[in-house]
Amino acid sequence: MPDTDKAAESAAPGGSAATAPRKRLVSGPGLLLVWVYGVITVGAVSRSVYQISTEFDRAPLPYTLTGLAALVYCFITYSLVRGGETARRAARVCCAAELAGVLIVGTWTLVRPESFPDSTVWSQFGMGYLFIPVILPVTGMLWLRRDRH
Questions:
Q1: Residue 28: pLDDT band by 50, 70, 90 thresholds?
Q2: pLDDT band at 120; cut points 50, 70, 90
Q3: Residues 106 and 134: beta-carbon distance below 8 Å
Q4: From CA 42, how far away is CA 26, in angstroms rounded?
Q5: Nearest 5°: phi and psi at 78?
Q6: Which element (helix H / strand E) includes 14?
Q7: Percent of the chain with pLDDT over 90
Q8: Which of 75, 99, 105, 131 could form a disulfide with 122 if both were Cys (CB 3.0 to 4.6 A apart)?
């Protein structure tokens, strides 16, 4: 699969902004952001694989939502490590979707707790994960907004 960011850089005439090297998203505070996303990815993937494979019939909705959260975390982590403008845009969209998911599921678990016989990563706005799930997407979007070029 061709790297569209690199292709655009090599096709642009010399001296334009497009010829600048790919902006690293994993420098400075971005490295900590990637590390935290990596840790929460491992936690969510481990939890969802275990729950889905052993107890799915007990609470299918929460376990499916934890699996979805794990996929979102994995994609954001990959996008941050990959770098480039396309990855930055994809990560921002996923961070926004993650924040929406945390807010929707967090509210849902407070309003209709009987729908969640077991918790998800996003239950009660991520309380089981020290509220990192609600803080992380906001931090990610702020980091991805910083000097793009």
A1: confident
A2: confident
A3: yes
A4: 18
A5: -60, -45
A6: none
A7: 55
A8: 105
Q: How many CA atoms are closer than 13 Å to the CA of 29, on its beta-carbon side?
A: 8
In Å, what is the CA distance from 25 to each residue of 118, 126, 140, 144, 146?
A: 35, 25, 10, 8, 10
Length of the chain as a residue count:
149
| Model confidence at 24: pLDDT above 80 | no
Q: Which of 112, 8, 99 is nearest to 62 (CA)?
A: 112
The position carrying tokens 């952001």 is 33
Using a cut of 0.90, tell me whether the model's pTM lies above it.
Answer: no
d(CA 115, CA 19): 52
- Whether 93 and 76 have beta carbons less than 8 Å apart is answered as no
User: Hey, what are 94's tokens?
Assistant: 């996923």
Q: DSSP labels for 48-114?
A: HHHHHHHHTTT-HHHHHHHHHHHHHHHHHHHHHHH-SHHHHHHHHHHHHHHHHHHHHHHHHHHH-GG
